[in-house]
Amino acid sequence: MSDPMLKVTSLDVAYGRAQVIFGVNLEVPAGALVCVMGRNGVGKTTLLNALMGVLHPSAGKIEFQGENITKVPTYDRVRRGMGYCPQGHETFPQLTVYENLQVTWEAAKGKKGAIDEALDVFPRLKPFLKRRAGFLSGGQQQMLAMARAMVTGPKMLILDEPTEGIQPSIVAEIEEVIERLHKEVGLAILLVEQYVDTAIKLADSFIVLDAGLVAHVGTAADLHDADLVRLLAV
Ligand SMILES: Nc1ncnc2c1ncn2[C@@H]1O[C@H](COP(=O)(O)OP(=O)(O)OP(=O)(O)O)[C@@H](O)[C@H]1O
Q1: Ligand 1 proximity of 43 Cβ (cutoff 6 Å)
Q2: Reported confidence tier of residue 234, pLDDT bands at 50, 70, 90
Q3: Buried b (16+ CB within 10 A) or exposed e, 103-119
Q4: What is the CA(121)–ligand 1 centre distance, in A?
Q5: Domain total for the chain?
Q6: Which pLDDT belongs to residue 43?
Q7: Where would I find the ABC transporter domain in this sequence (predicted)?
Q8: Does residue 40's CB lie within 6 angstroms of at least one atom of ligand 1?
Q9: Any domain includes 1
Q10: What is the mean pLDDT of residues 45-49?
């Protein structure tokens, strides 16, 4: 079997003396969609920030495409093909939609045509290219945040709760885009998701975190298991 695209081994992450992630193991095979689930505060965002080099693990190893990237800076992880869309659909509110895409594309040394390709994935953004991002709706800002991750030319997308706080009509649209990026474009995707329904619909497999530990690894079929429901109950 070939190496997974992302492999995380025995990862510990702490804020000062407060350890939040304990010995996490995780694999995302090429082209797979893996969901990270768990209640509020179990460490999902902390894990993703460590994967992207925003936080530095106190122990463990992160490998991307067979290379040890544990000490590689964030910008280099992006250039190697890790696209990150952090929680809270953060954009530069004073910049236009197009400028938001352009600054990210320049910083990541994106390929020619990548901005147009990202806009083809999110055609809803096209009428708003000259609008300041701060004036977009929550759903539009989420699409812009994902489009920004796309202009970096990712091989793998890391998405932190992309449907959180978004109106239901747009949630379905965002789910469709994630599904298309997974099934048609063939990107590997690591998705933090709180909603079991969305995870069942989208994920090939998932891990459940509980108090910073991997409490369960499985496929969507396992999600109906009573223990899992308990682990996920908010
Ligand atoms: N900058 C920080 N400094 C200290 N502790 C932090 C910091 N950020 C998060 N924590 C703590 O780490 C733990 C995990 O937080 P994290 O945001 O990773 O959880 P989460 O599973 O992503 O939660 P949510 O679903 O609410 O986003 C929490 O106890 C939180 O209070």
Answers
A1: yes
A2: low
A3: ebbeebebeeebbebbb
A4: 31
A5: 1
A6: 96
A7: 6-233
A8: yes
A9: no
A10: 97
